[in-house]
């Protein structure tokens, strides 16, 4: 009788356990399949870029008619693919640096204001508005840059050139149209605000409440509390958000293509319109429609270089996060055991 009373509950428990194990296996399979799918897609993109770009990368540019027709600023054919892609890589990186220098401090300031200073209602509304910027199409930002930003920056460009023209950054003849790297950088800085702001805001909100209260209890002002408790905790997250913003700025296409005058050259000047460094993405957009087959191969080859640069930015972000994150600090503070070599 006792065995008969015990068996049904035990059987039900075993059934529930089998159900949980089946659910775990299904979830594990779906997760592994999703991770594998991402790797397959990434590998597929890389293989496509390599196969399509190799003909132009390995070609003899001066001897290939369609490639020789791509003139450099000196009016002569490019000697090789690497000479062609070098200024484009520089332009992509340079525009991303300008955007992050202008946009990252503003984004971090907005994140601090919404997380530690603003009343809850204002913080929620401001955060919602900033997040909405991510939904604005790139072409709209480009039109806004043409109509508003370019004329607005002309007086500032004259001022910077007049008083700081001895600095190479502000040297050269000032543009009369506003189609400068400065205008493009300002628009890109606005475009990366949602990414950097949203990530840093969430990181700031994850700061342990006890750390903040301890700093305030010791007599620190709110800014001192942020400087001593919040910013050190969020350092790695701020770096990762900034690098994600760089990745967005480097890969931006339409807005930059509409605003900045195209020119394939090495240049650090940000106030001229004839000596700008074109980006890879904008160069592809401007030339794809009129390119021949081998020229499209060259454009795809430059896209491969942009792909590699994006990988480099992500790897750098990962390295900085691992070197300055909480785990690294914990390892550095763990005492070594006696008898173990350093």
UniProtKB/TrEMBL annotation:
| Keywords from the UniProt entry | Cell membrane, Membrane, Phosphate transport, Transmembrane, Transmembrane helix, Transport
Segments forming domain ABC transmembrane type-1: 89-317
Q: Indicate where this protein resides in the cell.
A: Cell membrane
Against InterPro entries, the record matches this protein to: MetI-like (IPR000515), MetI-like_sf (IPR035906), Phosphate_PstC (IPR011864), Phosphate_Transport_Permease (IPR051124)
Its chief place of residence is membrane
Q: Where would you find the membrane-spanning parts of this chain? A: 26-51, 88-113, 125-149, 169-196, 298-321
Q: Name one Pfam family in it.
A: BPD_transp_1
CDD domains xrefs: TM_PBP2 (cd06261)
Q: Which family does it belong to?
A: Belongs to the binding-protein-dependent transport system permease family. CysTW subfamily.
Q: What does this protein do?
A: Part of the binding-protein-dependent transport system for phosphate; probably responsible for the translocation of the substrate across the membrane.
What's the protein name?
Answer: Phosphate transport system permease protein
Query: Which species is this record about?
Result: Microbacterium rhizosphaerae
């Amino acid at each position: 009788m006792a065995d008969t009373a015990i068996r049904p509950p035990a059987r039900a428990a075993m059934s529930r356990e089998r159900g949980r194990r089946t659910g775990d296996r299904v979830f594990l399979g779906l997760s592994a399949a999703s991770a594998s799918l991402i790797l397959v897609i990434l590998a597929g993109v890389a293989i496509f870029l390599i196969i399509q770009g190799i003909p132009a990368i390995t070609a003899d540019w001066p001897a290939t008619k369609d490639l020789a027709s791509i003139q450099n600023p000196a009016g002569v054919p490019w000697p090789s693919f690497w000479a062609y892609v070098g200024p484009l890589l520089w332009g992509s990186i340079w525009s991303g640096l300008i955007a992050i220098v202008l946009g990252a401090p503003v984004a971090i300031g907005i994140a601090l204001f919404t997380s530690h200073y603003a009343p809850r209602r204002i913080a929620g509304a401001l955060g919602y508005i900033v997040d909405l910027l991510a939904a604005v199409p790139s072409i709209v930002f480009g039109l806004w840059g043409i109509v508003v930003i370019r004329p607005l920056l002309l007086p500032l460009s004259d001022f910077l050139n007049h008083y700081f023209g001895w600095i190479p950054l502000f040297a050269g003849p000032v543009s009369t149209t506003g189609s400068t790297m400065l205008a493009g950088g300002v628009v890109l800085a606005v475009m990366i605000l949602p990414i950097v702001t949203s990530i840093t805001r969430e990181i700031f909100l994850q700061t342990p409440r006890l750390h903040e209260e301890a700093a305030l209890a010791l007599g620190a002002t709110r800014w001192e509390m942020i400087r001593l408790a919040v910013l050190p905790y969020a350092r790695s997250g701020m770096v990762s958000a900034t690098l994600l913003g760089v990745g967005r700025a480097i890969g931006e296409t339409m807005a930059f293509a509409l605003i900045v005058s195209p020119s394939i050259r090495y240049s650090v000047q940000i106030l001229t319109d004839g000596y700008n460094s074109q980006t890879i993405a904008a160069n592809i957009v401007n030339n794809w429609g009129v390119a021949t087959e081998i020229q499209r191969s060259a454009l795809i080859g430059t896209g491969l270089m942009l792909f590699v640069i994006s990988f480099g930015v992500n790897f750098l972000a990962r390295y900085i996060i691992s070197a300055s994150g909480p785990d690294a600090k914990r390892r550095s503070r763990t005492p070594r055991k006696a008898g173990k070599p350093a």
